[in-house]
Amino acid sequence: MRALVVRAAGEPPRVTDVELPGPAESEVRVGVRAAGVCHSDLSMVDGTLAPPYPLVLGHEAAGIVVEVGGGVSRTAVGDHVVLNWAPPCRRCWFCQRAEPWLCASTGTPASPRGRTADGEPLHVTLGLGALAEEVVVPQSAVVPVPAELPFETAALLGCAVLTGSGAIRRTAAVASGDSVAVIGLGGVGLAAVYAARAAGADPVIAVDLSPAKRELAHAAGATAFLVSDSSTVRAVRAQTGGRGVDHALECVGRSATIGLAWRAARRGGQVVVVGMGAKDDIVGLGALDVFHSARTLRSSVYGSSDPDRDLPELAADVLAGVLDLGFLVSDRTTLDGAAAAFDRMARGEGARTLVCP
Ligand code: APR
Ligand code: ZN
C-alpha cells in the first residue's frame, strides 16, 4: 500500500510503497478515509521529536475496519472508527486511577511496524502511521463511531479536537465567565478557542504570530485576536482588569510561548501547556516570580481525556449539531498532496489540511 514516509530528519516526506503485516491476535486493519496533518507530524519531519526513521507519518484519522485478527471483540469489519494514538492498557497504576492519558504503556513517538518495498524495517507514528491507505493497529486503538459521522470530522476528533477541547474542559476545567487566552492557532489551538467559548468563557483571547489567523480565530469564536509581539501581555492584561487571564493555554510547543502564557496568566491563574516541545528547549522562570505569582503550571496530555469515553461523546455532539467543526478544515488533498500541507504548516498557514488517501 502507499504511505507518506519520511526517511530522515529534515527530508521532505514522500509517498512510498510499504508492506504491513496483516492483523495479528487482537489487532485490526483499518482503511483510512480521512487523516489530518498535525504539528506533531511536522515535529517528526523536522526532527524536533527525533523519532526513528524511516517513519510513516500521521496519527489523526478515521476510517473503516476492513479485517480483524483473532480475539477481536470491540469492533467488526465495516465499523467506522476513529484512531486513538494513546490506547491505554487499563491495568497500570495510572489507568487504575482513571488517568488513562498517562498510561505507562504510552508516550513512545514511533514504534516498528512493517517494511518498505525494499525490505527496510519501518516505524509508524504514535503506533498508527495514519497518513497511509491503511493501518494495522491493536483493537484498543480504534473507537467505533456512528456511520453518519463524516470521516473528516471523525478524523479531527482523534487529535486536534480531543486535545484542544479536552485541555479546556478537562485539564483546565474552564467555567462560564472565566477569562482564557489561547496562544497558537493551529488545529489544536482553534479547537481550544471553540471549546472555551462553548464553556461560556469571556473573554477568549486568541494569540498567534501570524496576522492571517485573525479570521480563523473569530470563526472559532474568539472574542479578541492579538498578533503576538512584545505588547501581548499588556494587551491581555488590558482586557482582564489589569490582572491577566484565569487560564492561559500554550498550543505551540516552545519555551518562548510557554513563557508568554506564564506572563499572560493572572496571579493565582493557571498555565496549561498543550504544545509538545523539544527536549532541549528549556523554560526559564524566575524563582521569586514563581512564588509571588502563585500560578499553576501544568500540561495537558491528549486533553486529559479518555478517548473510549470522550470520542463517542464528541461524535454525538457533532451529530446533534452542538459541535460544528467546519472552521477547522482549511485544505483538502490526497496522499500525493500531503507534503505540501507540511510546508503550509511550517509557514503557519491555515487550520487543518485533511488528506483522503
Ligand atoms: N507565538 C504565537 N503563535 C505562534 C508562535 C509564537 N511565538 N509560533 C508559532 N505560532 C503559531 C503558528 O503561527 C501556528 O498558527 O502556532 C500555531 C501552531 O499551529 P500548527 O502548526 O497548526 O500546530 P497544531 O497542529 O495546532 O499543534 C500545536 O500541539 O499537539 C501539539 O505537537 C503539537 O506542539 C504542537 C501543538
Ligand atoms: Zn496530533
Automatic annotation (TrEMBL):
Belongs to the zinc-containing alcohol dehydrogenase family. This is S-(Hydroxymethyl)glutathione dehydrogenase/alcohol dehydrogenase. Its cofactor is Zn(2+). It is an enzyme of class 1 (oxidoreductase). InterPro entries: ADH-like_C (IPR013149), ADH-like_N (IPR013154), ADH_Zn_CS (IPR002328), ER (IPR020843), GroES-like_sf (IPR011032), NAD(P)-bd_dom_sf (IPR036291). Its EC number is 1.1.1.1, 1.1.1.284. It comes from the Bacteria. It comes from Plantactinospora soyae. GO terms for molecular function: alcohol dehydrogenase (NAD+) activity; S-(hydroxymethyl)glutathione dehydrogenase [NAD(P)+] activity; zinc ion binding. Keywords: Metal-binding, Oxidoreductase, Zinc.
